[in-house]
Specification:
Elements: E1 7-11, E2 17-19, E3 23-29, E4 43-54, E5 62-68, E6 71-79, E7 82-86, E8 91-94, E9 99-103, E10 108-114, H1 116-121, E11 123-133, E12 144-148, E13 154-158, E14 163-169, E15 171-172, E16 175-176, E17 185-192, E18 197-201, E19 207-214, E20 217-219, E21 222-224, E22 229-232, E23 238-242, E24 248-255, E25 263-265, E26 268-270, H2 273-284
Antiparallel strand pairs: 1-22, 2-3, 3-4, 4-11, 5-10, 6-9, 6-11, 7-8, 7-10, 9-12, 13-14, 14-17, 15-16, 17-24, 18-23, 19-22, 19-24, 20-21, 20-23, 25-26
The protein binds manganese (II) ion.
Length: 293
């Protein structure tokens, strides 16, 4: 390969913090000073809930009503069930492998909880939440909601029983994913059997990273253990992913950067400070709608 994209950093999971009482997450970016604010643009935030066991409870754990504006929240469940309700009246439950892709855009209130029946039994939770930024031209679009079931993903069977690539957004080997995004985004789950040796290729300017969800892998010959994050330099296209020792699941993210100023504050991601002030004003004036706790 003469067009290999090199690894910029391999990042172990930073110390965990709780989001509400239901999501114990490791924030790979933009917190913790590991990467600059726009390093993974269009992806603005990645919270990773590594596997954790929640005991049974009659009162579901989670995060109460809160607003968002200016971006999309993409929640992937790997283990456990997450329920969502928002002020546009949309709601849904995602289970293992499913994705909920909420376009906050001009503004929604939502709440995110462990699903009620799942909570009564308790169990292992493992999830990812991404914030995907919106370009200025779409920040004030109407909100949207895409429930994406695992069976609806594009599915690529790798040759020689190496495993599968589930395409959530973008396309791999000509197979497209179901998610609508406002700027080019590639999002896949590589579910690899032991002994796989697979190439991925993205345009050089696309910001690109892997998150190892299960197992351990080699990335361009460097070992990467479970729960570690790999950030790639923008110096080539091809990435080699191998599983010499065991089967593995890897979340693959790549996207065309949005080259616009960014002003994030709390639950809002806008282009200017004035727009942040406006967001708080609109929120305080009830313009994000109504949602019961
Ligand atoms: Mn939220």
């Amino acid at each position: 390969m003469n067009n290999l994209r090199s690894i910029e950093k391999i990042i172990p999971p930073p110390p965990a913090h709780m989001v509400g009482d239901g999501f114990r997450v490791h924030n790979f970016f933009p917190g913790n000073g590991l990467m600059s604010l726009q390093r993974m643009s269009p992806f603005f935030l990645l919270d990773y809930g590594a596997k954790v066991e929640y005991p049974p409870t009659d009162i579901p754990r989670g995060v109460g009503v809160h607003p968002h504006r200016g971006f999309e929240t993409v929640t992937i469940s790997y283990q456990g069930k997450v329920a969502h309700h928002d002020s546009t009246g949309k709601s849904g439950v995602i289970g293992e492998g499913d994705v909920q892709w909420m376009t906050a855009a001009s503004g929604v209130l939502h709440k995110e909880y462990h699903e009620e029946e799942w909570s009564k039994k308790g169990g292992l939770m493992q999830m990812v939440q991404l914030w995907v930024n919106l370009p200025a031209a779409h920040k004030m679009d109407p909100p949207g909601y895409q429930p994406l079931r695992r069976e609806d993903y594009g599915l690529v069977f790798l040759p020689k029983n190496q495993g599968t690539v589930e395409v959530i957004a973008g396309s791999y080997k000509g197979v497209s994913g179901p998610a609508h995004s406002f700027t080019p985004v590639e999002m896949y789950n590589a579910r690899l059997n032991k002994g796989a040796d697979v190439l991925f290729s993205f345009p050089q300017q696309y910001n690109t990273a892997f998150l190892v969800i299960e197992g351990s892998v080699l990335v361009n010959d460097d070992p990467v253990p479970t729960d570690f994050f790999v950030l790639f330099a923008n110096d080539g296209q091809e990435i080699r992913l191998e599983t010499p020792d065991e089967s593995a699941v890897v979340l693959i993210l790549s996207g065309e950067p949005i080259n616009e100023p960014i002003v994030p504050y709390g639950p809002f991601v806008m282009n200017t400070k004035q727009e942040i002030i406006q967001a708080y004003e609109d929120f305080n004036n009830g313009k994000f709608g109504q949602l019961e706790d």
